Amino acid sequence: MKKDNYYDIAIIGGGAQATAFISGIYSNFIKKNIEKKIKIIVIDRIENYGCGKVYNQDYPWLLMNTPSTDLSININDSNDFKKWLQANSKTLELSEKNIEYVPRKIFGFYLKEKLEFFIEELKKKNIEIIKKDSLAKKINLDNYENKVTITLSTNEKIYCNFTVLAKGHDDLNDPYKLKGKKNYIHNPFPAIKHLANFPKDCSIGIIGSNLTAIDIALTLEKLGHKNFYMFSRTGKLPEVKGKYLKSEEPKYANLKNIIRYKNENLTLKDLLKFIRKEMYGHKLDWRETLFSKSKANEKDLFIKKIKLAKEAPTPFNVILGMIPEFAKTWRFVKTSEFNKFMNLYYSKIHQKHGAIPLINAEKIETMLLNNILHIRDNIQLIEKKEDHFLIYSNKEAIKCDFVINASGPLRKVCHENQGLLKELCAKNYINEIDIGGIITNPKNGKILSINKLCEQKILAIGHNAEGTHPFINNFAWILETTNEVSLSLLNEVLYGKV
Q1: Is the predicted pLDDT of residue 498 greater than 60, yes or no?
Q2: Beta pairing class for 38-44 and 6-12
Q3: Per CATH, is 184-238+357-405 categorized as 3.50.50.60?
């Protein structure tokens, strides 16, 4: 008989990625007879269960950047979230007009409800899922006893056969070493907690100009601020999801065609052949579409994109169709080529793929035209003075009373401040790509060690597996990859094989 603190699977993190993993167990095993009792523990703070920090309680104007039709937690029903919205529209105070892009907290309500549903249904199938209100502090891998030991923040120990990392990123980037400085907001979310109390007449600088920066700008304007800046190296704003949003199914740049051409050791040049052909079929210049070097003012370019998004389908629809296909091809790409892509091109592609809804783009346009929001590129240095910051950009020094970080996540897992995975990093059990991101076996999620041997006990999914899945910010792709991992792992627990 197993001890109370011994589990078949421990999941570290209880947010959206863990919910996707449990959804995968539900989808794959709810119709099967399971005679062996399976014990699973999920470790996280109670308020994060189902939704994590990202989709937790926050301002209602912070919208999902993905349409509700692409946000189902049920891999067998892509309209599950949309149907849930329609069924709960009165309670949520939503109308049919505003269910395409919904507040993040509402998606969080959905995830919380679905997590409880999965737990109750799986309990009937002999799969017990226990929620532990705590944080994981340290992981040890005991090769002698062939188990994993997890030390919690309470110093309690949990023992398990397998551990699934589903905790998301450790921290955010701190490119200008400002963490801990007065009036610097390192992590802006939840915005309702961290952005609510700035003086209305202060000057604010936002580091970054992508999705997080957009949400910060929308919040500051909504709270009555009239003077803030976005600083980044490129000064580029995200693409705009148009009124006529429809993913174009690729004719040439799809998984079937690519692996028929070459099913291993793909290079970036190989992939480019299919991209060029797809773009040409839509009468698009691939260089201009993906890597535009236009010298036009970014404000003017952004306003032009909004105008186009209102009037006709945009090139974004073509990119939207290709991204899922290329996400599936990465397991066939040479590691050196994958590293090259992440180092040289990922940020540019992410700027294209990480598009914002037209409703948000129009609000940013109004701020730009009214000189509430100012865009600055070529950020070089930020100096902290006694009561303000000086931000240097293109030989200009701009004074800001507050600085808010929107520079993106810290991708490196093995770093000097690592606590949870410190021992695994020290033993070279974790292998990362150059810019950071755990490398896993894409079929079963198991972490690959630096000596290329697959660690049999520890898995990574979602944002913890970015070294294998570069487009993991796409929720449908998170669901698809975790579904594959959950099927593999539970088969191993039940039958001793993948």
Answers
A1: no
A2: parallel
A3: yes
Other CB atoms within a 10 A radius of the CB of residue 284 amount to 16
Rounded distance between C-alpha atoms, residue 104 and residue 60, angstroms: 8
So where are the chain's domains? Answer: 6-171+411-495, 184-238+357-405, 240-354
Pairing of the two strands 389-393 and 379-384: antiparallel
pLDDT tens-digit readout, 310-339: 998 999 999 999 999 999 999 999 989 999
Phi, psi (degrees; rounded to nearest 5) at 8 = -70, -40
Residue 1 has pLDDT above 50, yes or no: no
pTM above 0.90, yes or no: yes
**Mean pLDDT to the nearest integer, 408-428:** 90
Q: Are 134 and 428 in contact (CB under 8 A)?
A: no
Helix 475-495 to helix 316-329 angle, to the nearest 10 degrees?
20
Q: Which fold has domain 6-171+411-495?
A: FAD/NAD(P)-binding domain (3.50.50)
Rounded-to-integer distance, Cα 109 and Cα 115, Å = 10
DSSP conformation letters of 154-198: TS-EEEEEEEEE----S-B--TT--TT-TTEES---SHHHHSTT-
Distances (CA, A) of 243 to 127, 316, 319, 326: 44, 12, 16, 25
Bridge partner list, 6: 159
* Cβ neighbourhood burial of 76 (10 Å; 0-12, 13-18, 19+): exposed
Tell me how far apart the alpha carbons of residues 19 and 465 are, in angstroms, rounded to a whole number: 16
- What are the angstrom distances between the C-alpha of 141 and each of 7, 159, 241, 494? 15, 10, 45, 21
465 contacts 449 by C-beta, under 8 angstroms: no
Establish how many alpha carbons lie within 13 A of residue 251's alpha carbon, considering only the half-sphere containing its beta carbon.
7
Q: In whole angstroms, what is the distance from residue 377 CA to residue 346 CA?
A: 19
Q: At 162, phi and psi to the nearest 5?
A: -135, 145
**pLDDT at 2 > cutoff 80:** no
What b/e string do you get for 136-149 counting C-beta neighbours within 10 Å, with b at 16 or more? Answer: bebbebeeeeebbb
- The tokens for 165 are 């990392």
